[in-house]
């Protein structure tokens, strides 16, 4: 294996990532890992890849950290103005359309794979996938990032419509944990955000809270603690 | 009748000493002299009606339309200078389709009205532009239900239950005020609007006219469309009958 080139210190921050969003009976749950890398160095092992756009709409970010942060900032700004003008909260569809517009019109400059999900009173919980080229596609569930490759089969088999909140959260955490197990660019903790008519709830799963799979060793006693 | 501007009315960028912009008021005159346009908001939708005066027998029936579709869920009826009205409608259409393209949703009617009003007002701010010589009545149906707005040449826009512009607007407004709009469906509204337009049409001063009716309501699936031919005929017949009855009564009184 070739030695690590010095480039890892100056490489752009990328979110190897596994991101996921699913519809459940009352709304949506967004989930993500927490590893941000510059080359092979883990720049942030506890990053938050789920960002707020409005009170009722959130976005999962994968790809270039800088690109997705800037896109999120622009969309948050537009949505804020839009909400004021409209006199009521923006819909998930509108938020997704704005993200798509930026992603598509600037496709040659951006490396951003995003998932917009949230709840509004017209369409209930909605998930919109916006991959690299700037396509916009509404789906019952959507995954993204390097770790998502390992999830396609599992998601197709295991997802069911109208899951309860607990079922859906377990489903999301299990999926991200599976991806973390196989994808070197994904890791750290699993963060989830649940959005429904009642509001927003953030959750955090680390270490022994994550399920174990084939040949994985349980965390056991922490050797640093006497 | 009209007040003389005497020097303060030469440019739209000049105020008079009593704070008026005469050019805008003169633009409104153009609207006041055109055929009557009526709009009402019923409980399940909006009805627009136009007294389209026909200046010549050579005009093909159905040409020179005064009611225009702006978007699936919205339509506009124009009074005043026809060409000016066409520009306003074009702008409204453009705003509606751009909004859909950018936000992924149909433009809320209030927002559409806002955009059109802003544009009309814009054209009253520059000395090298003249104000639009037309007013438009905008009717639409969105998530907040059916709505009716009117945009005047000054750029001012209000939301209405019932609105009328043009020659017969005074009489039309009086007639609209008598209607119980909150209990009326659009089917009934069509008959009411037709009756009003026939009523305010001045047989002596203007010769022929064509009635244009459109609606956007639950029955039309919340889409703006011209009133179906059979309902239109029904409305015309009822309105004509009512007008004839009224004329007869007046004739008898005179005797």
UniProtKB/TrEMBL annotation, chain A:
SUPFAM superfamilies: N-terminal nucleophile aminohydrolases (Ntn hydrolases). CDD domains: proteasome_beta_type_6 (cd03762). Keywords: Cytoplasm, Hydrolase, Nucleus, Protease, Proteasome, Threonine protease. It catalyses: Cleavage of peptide bonds with very broad specificity. It is found in: Cytoplasm; Nucleus. It comes from the Eukaryota. PANTHER family: ATP-DEPENDENT PROTEASE SUBUNIT HSLV, METALLOPROTEASE TLDD. Component of the proteasome complex. Belongs to the peptidase T1B family. Component of the proteasome, a multicatalytic proteinase complex which is characterized by its ability to cleave peptides with Arg, Phe, Tyr, Leu, and Glu adjacent to the leaving group at neutral or slightly basic pH. The proteasome has an ATP-dependent proteolytic activity. This is Proteasome subunit beta. It comes from Sphagnum troendelagicum.
TrEMBL record, chain B:
SUPFAM superfamilies: N-terminal nucleophile aminohydrolases (Ntn hydrolases) (SSF56235). Residues 8-30 form the Proteasome alpha-type subunits domain. Its main location: cytoplasm. Keywords: Cytoplasm, Nucleus, Proteasome. The keyword Cytoplasm applies. It is found in: Cytoplasm; Nucleus. The 20S proteasome core is composed of 28 subunits that are arranged in four stacked rings, resulting in a barrel-shaped structure. The two end rings are each formed by seven alpha subunits, and the two central rings are each formed by seven beta subunits. The proteasome is a multicatalytic proteinase complex which is characterized by its ability to cleave peptides with Arg, Phe, Tyr, Leu, and Glu adjacent to the leaving group at neutral or slightly basic pH. Belongs to the peptidase T1A family. This is Proteasome subunit alpha type. It comes from Sphagnum troendelagicum.
